[in-house]
Design goal:
- Helices cover 47% and strands 12% of the residues.
- The protein is an alpha/beta fold and 353 residues long.
- The strands form three sheets. The chain has a six-stranded parallel β-sheet with strand order 9-8-7-10-11-12, sandwiched between helices. A four-stranded parallel β-sheet has the order 3-4-5-6, with helices on both faces. It has a two-stranded parallel sheet with strand order 1-2.
- Helix 1 crosses helix 7, helix 1 packs across helix 16 and helix 3 crosses helix 4.
- The longest helix has 19 residues.
- The chain is globular and about 60 Å long.
């Protein structure tokens, strides 16, 4: 979702040539492969096929597989996106080989180093030569960490590029109607962060909150594979106990999921990307975390940080149902042209503008 618009913009620039490396960190078809098909992403030039492992093992495997590619092809720039282990691993390899690094979504900070993603962000930004940011707070974070101002470029949000580029197709998919739902008459929830779903007490509490919301508003819950395992370990299954009134779904493709978001009365999530997408769609979002690396979605968007206490979640949901939730506004430069700006800056840096 993040790389698709960048690849499209690169293709339109005659002086730049890109090679796409799929590390295989996200390897399930529904969690990765389907996006290549729906978003028109070309087949990867290289697929490292890394798969699942611990953070250290996965990062090491990516580095070992990526280094020979860099040594063989000697790129002028390695562009990484987001905050996953692939982001960190490829940045370290490139930097040690003297290859410049560009980071898309630079400068995001939760302030919580217990999150593996926070470590990945900090290290990647330290190594990067071009830092492409989504919002002014990210710029401020980087400046406070001593990053030179000429490395920082506020370009907007590539996730928004993808959303705006495919929103009409998503709405035309009529996924909401296919599930027998009424637009504006249901809630959507996703949970996948280890801090929420790997802790049985925390997950049970969130399920208590969701069950109470579901007694007042139908809830649909696309299940991440990690979360499905945790639910099974708790003895929770669809149609019983806390999940009695919650409709579980398999992971959804991109277009179907955007349609589900756009039609929802509210969204309950621990996802960073959904905080941004709901802001663009004007849908109230309740984030079940104690912090967020995307504070612009709170200060300007439709997002509310509610923590993981089930009573706080219930109260926030009832407030949305009774009073309509936050209306929000679109942050600056979230206009669908972030990838164009990124490629223009890369080209200028390479003397190809």
């Amino acid at each position: 979702m993040k790389i698709a618009p960048v690849l499209a913009a690169l293709k339109r620039h005659a002086g730049l040539h890109g090679l796409l490396v799929h590390t295989g960190q996200h390897y399930d078809h529904q969690m990765s492969g389907v996006f290549f098909d729906e978003l028109g992403i070309p087949r990867p030039d290289f697929d490292l096929g890394i798969g699942s492992a611990s953070h250290a093992q996965q990062t090491a495997r990516i580095m070992m597989a990526f280094e020979p590619l860099c040594q063989t092809h000697r790129p002028d720039l390695v562009l990484v996106v987001g905050d996953v282990n692939s982001t960190l691993a490829c940045s370290v390899v490139a930097s040690k080989l003297g290859i410049k690094v560009a980071h898309v979504e630079a400068g995001l900070r939760s302030g919580d180093r217990r999150m593996p993603e926070e470590i990945n962000r900090l290290v990647t930004d330290t190594l990067s030569d071009l830092l492409f940011t989504t919002s002014a707070d990210a710029d401020a974070n980087l400046r406070s960490e001593g990053v030179a101002a000429d490395k920082i470029h506020l370009v907007g949000n590539v996730m928004v590029d993808t959303l705006l580029g495919h929103r009409e197709r998503a709405l035309a998919s009529r996924s909401v109607e296919a599930l027998g739902l009424q637009r504006g008459g249901y809630g959507l929830t996703t949970l996948h962060r280890p801090s929420n779903v790997d802790d049985p007490a925390c997950l049970a509490g969130l399920l208590d909150g969701l069950a109470e919301i579901a007694s007042r508003l139908p809830l649909v819950f696309p299940i991440h594979p990690r979360t499905r395992k945790s639910l099974a370990a708790l003895g929770e299954s669809e149609g019983r106990g806390r999940l009695r009134d919650i409709r579980l779904l398999d992971p959804q493709n991109y277009l179907a999921f955007v349609d589900l978001m756009a039609g929802a009365r509210l969204v309950v999530t621990d996802s960073g990307g959904l905080q941004e997408e709901t802001t663009m769609l004007g849908v109230p979002c309740l984030t079940v975390r104690d912090n967020t690396e995307r504070p612009v979605t709170i200060s300007q968007g439709t997002n509310t940080l509610v923590g993981t206490d089930p009573q706080a979640l219930i109260a926030a949901a009832l407030d949305v149902l009774e009073h309509g939730g936050k209306a929000g506004r679109i942050p600056p430069l979230w206009d669908g042209r972030a990838a164009e700006r990124i490629v223009a800056i890369i080209a200028a840096t390479a003397g190809l503008a």
